[in-house]
UniProtKB/TrEMBL annotation:
GO terms for biological process: methylation. This is Chemotaxis protein methyltransferase. It comes from Sphingobium subterraneum. Pfam families: CheR (PF01739), CheR_N (PF03705). S-adenosyl-L-methionine binds at N88, T90, R94, E132, D162, R233, N234. The keyword Transferase applies.
Length: 290
């Protein structure tokens, strides 16, 4: 008991406890959990320090304790702090088997829907800076511009959302280093990506079917129509079980019967409605018909 109390007040190595204490870490942890559902395990204490220290400095505060008072009171500063604490690691064609499944098993039916004038809705949920979103868009469109016309002319929307402002800005910009697309099949890059110097610019016609928005999974979801496909990959790993259960339940409610949910390789479908989903590939689930 005495040891636990002593540990609580022990400074982090190399950091003055006057500037950043264990109590400060606990306070940040609790704010991030309440706002975003993100669980910061004790091992992340120094990461929190390094991510927030520049914001503490810029705010003119001398200590984390003072800065925490600011983020409690000031929504704008709180948003900056939460942005800084998100992990946005992503890359094109991550978990390639998802895109192969989409191209071979799902795309033909979506093309038929688009041709028949029916709406097609896809959601990249937790899209980070957009690499997943454009991997999805290029796979949907396919290599043949003529064949893709029903997607481009039809009622087809790919929604991409993220909590972090810088991620939303990156996904909206739709510009990457050409190198970043090295795993995307060349026959998909050719028609839909323009090389400008060392940069890859996603073609405007592709961007025309995309809507990028800021959305916190914990808040309301204003979407009107259900989705044919939801990608939510490598996001739930940051959440605890009750948050995962709620999130998966909301995704299931948001899918059409027969719609597909793609999740990260270390994630699983959970929660009270999980029986409505059938596993049809590696971390690919299909919602049962009615
Ligand atoms: C590791 S990235 C995953 C990106 C992409 N889905 C992939 O698999 O490559 C996780 C993303 O989830 C977002 N995120 C975390 N908590 C969120 C929340 N409560 N609401 C919405 N997005 C959140 C983060 O901002 C981050 O960009």
């Amino acid at each position: 008991m005495m040891q636990a109390v002593a540990e609580k007040f022990e400074p982090f190595p190399g950091i003055s406890a006057q500037v950043y204490s264990r109590a400060d870490f606990e306070a940040v942890r609790s704010i991030v959990y309440d706002v975003a559902g993100i669980v910061l395990p004790p091992g992340k204490a120094t990461l929190v320090y390094s991510r927030l220290a520049p914001l503490v400095r810029n705010s003119g505060k001398q200590t984390f304790a003072n800065y925490i008072d600011t983020i409690k009171a000031d929504e704008g500063e709180r948003r900056k702090a939460i942005n800084a604490l998100t992990t946005n690691h992503t890359f094109f064609y991550r978990e390639r088997h998802h895109f192969d499944h989409l191209a071979n098993e799902v795309r033909p039916a979506l093309l038929a829907k688009a041709k028949a004038g029916h709406p097609v809705r896809i959601w990249s949920a937790g899209c980070s800076t957009g690499e997943e979103l454009y991997s999805l868009a290029l796979t949907l469109l396919g290599p043949d511009k003529g064949e893709a016309a029903p997607f481009l002319r039809g009622d087809v929307i790919i929604l991409a959302t993220d909590l972090a402002d810088h991620a939303v800005a990156g996904a909206t910009a739709a510009k990457y280093e050409m190198d970043a697309l090295k795993d995307v099949p060349a026959e998909l890059v050719r028609p839909w990506v323009k090389q400008v110097g060392t940069e890859a610019h996603i073609a405007p016609e592709v961007c025309g079917m995309i809507r990028v928005k800021r959305l916190n999974f914990l808040g309301p979801w204003p979407m009107q129509r259900p989705f044919d496909i939801i990608f939510c990959r490598n996001v739930m790993i940051y959440f605890d079980q009750p948050t995962k259960d709620t999130l998966v339940t909301r995704f299931i409610d948001q899918l059409i019967p027969g719609g597909h949910l793609y999740i990260g390789h270390s994630e699983r479908v959970c929660g009270p409605k999980q029986d409505k989903m059938s596993l049809v590939g590696g971390t690919i689930y299909r919602k049962d018909e009615a």
